Amino acid sequence: MQNILIKNGVLVPMIKSGKYFAGDILIENGRIKEIGQIISADCMVIDATDCFVLPGFIQCHVHTVQSLLRHQADDLELLDWLKKRTWPYEAALDGDGVEAASELGIAELLLGGTTTALDFGTTHNHDRVFKTARGMGIRLFSGKTHMDTGTDVPKQILENTEYSLREAEDLGKKWNNNGRLKYVVEPRFALSCTEILMKEAVKLARKNNWLLHTHANESINEVRRVKKLTKKSNIAYLKKVGFLGKDVILAHGVHVTDSELKTLKDTNTRICHCPGANLKLASGIADVPKYLKNKIVVALGADGPPCNNKLSIFQEMSLAATVHKIKHGPRAMDAWTVLGMATREGARALNILDQIGTLEVGKSADITIIKRDSMSLHPDGDPASQIVYGATASDVRDVLIDGELIVRDSKLLKFKHQEIQTKAQIAWKATRARMKI
Ligand SMILES: [Zn+2]
Sign of the C-alpha dihedral, residues 60, 61, 64, 70? Predict the structure, then answer.
């Protein structure tokens, strides 16, 4: 592998809030070898003059497989959004659709500086997501979704419990630790899964040391239905089936009672905050300052293209830094805290902070370089303020994962943007025809 020297950047290591300095980073064999003023080295040089150099962004809840449905499911609340648009779409997706969708989603993530994502699949063809991710070079935690019950679910995405879990185990054995890929066990949510499925999913994940991921406490209607179905609050139900702990990331956590919050804290369960999707589906606003006060690990994620409609960490950072000020005042969620959620805390949530999430010697060289060309990044200011409030995905110039250059001058090195878009258009047309809309 080529060794690389990143020169003259403003380094924002994200080990500590407020710390940044001018300097260089030497990458050898995919890892950060040295940070500081490095005079010269016999390797490729990336000039980062007037650029911010950060740990690659980490999103802990996305659905790349939903990318073809982008801009086709606006102005709906969660359960209608699932019933009327998202489930019929997933039911109509074939293998080529899964591939085209994940390619479009992953391309957007990489171009926007996200180097690691925790991704939710659909029930079928998940091999194609992993193949695509492997080819594109992203660090992807992903799994097929499980659904073995529920109302209004098309039969194509409802599965036999045993079959569904067996397929997950086969996928995990094939793809976990295959390059930068990790398998994650992902029941969709309490309303789509039988209790036996939830319990067996937990067993499967823990037997193999894989993470667990699901949606929880996202909308009021969902919370009410879970209570009616299980006779418990959502978090109490997850506790009953064993689906809480340091190896669990719950997307959303918008409507959480004090006693549920205490359970999350006691079990060290992680939350992924998705402010863009929560606002668009009118689900509500998760009380992130309260989570943080209780020392609960909170990461960020854009959720799905049809409920956001972007996979931009910059949009999520900007929202996370602003929406909480309404309830908690202007000092709630400063820019450094939010930038930490998008980098270091994401790695902590995935239990890989020893490998990525900060710029430190010995860690994998997952690095995002942001250029300061945009008017909104001038004239000056604190780097966290510039990045969180002023930058957008198009300000990302270069992206490295394990020291491999994936994006250079805002272009994917191994893929043509037009080809990804054309493939997605063709796949969407075919999927839409099967959806009969
Ligand atoms: Zn989701």
Answer: negative
Which residues sit with Cβ closer than 5 angstroms to ligand 1, an ion? 303
Q: How far is the CA of 190 from the centre of ligand 1 (A)?
A: 13
So what's the pLDDT on residue 323? 98
Position 382 pLDDT exceeds 90: yes
Residues 180 and 276 reside in one and the same domain:
yes
Same domain (yes/no): 344, 223:
yes
Which of helix, strand or coil describes residue 12? coil
**Integer Cα distance of 240 and 242 in angstroms:** 6
Residue 2: pLDDT band (50, 70, 90) is confident
pLDDT band, residue 119 (cuts 50/70/90): very high
Radius of gyration of the chain (CA): 21
| 375 plus 340 within the same structural domain | no
Give the distance (Å) from ligand 1 centre to CA of residue 52: 30
Q: Describe the crossing of helices 161-175 and 195-208 by its angle, rounded to 10 degrees.
A: 20
- What is the Å distance from ligand 1's center to 63 Cα? 6
Same domain assignment for residues 20 and 122: no
Q: How many domains does the chain have?
A: 2
* 423-435 residue pLDDT tens: 999 999 999 999 9
For residues 310 and 333, state if they share a domain. Answer: yes
- Orientation of helix 161-175 relative to helix 126-136, angle to 10°: 20
- Between the CA of 250 and the centroid of ligand 1 the distance, in Å, is 10
> Quick check: is 159 in a domain?
yes
Residue range(s) defining the domain that contains residue 34 = 4-55+363-412
Q: The domain that contains 367 carries what CATH number?
A: 2.30.40.10
pLDDT in tens, 274-323: 999 999 999 999 999 999 999 999 999 999 999 999 999 999 999 999 99
Q: Are residues 404 and 391 in the same domain?
A: yes
CATH number, domain at 115? 3.20.20.140
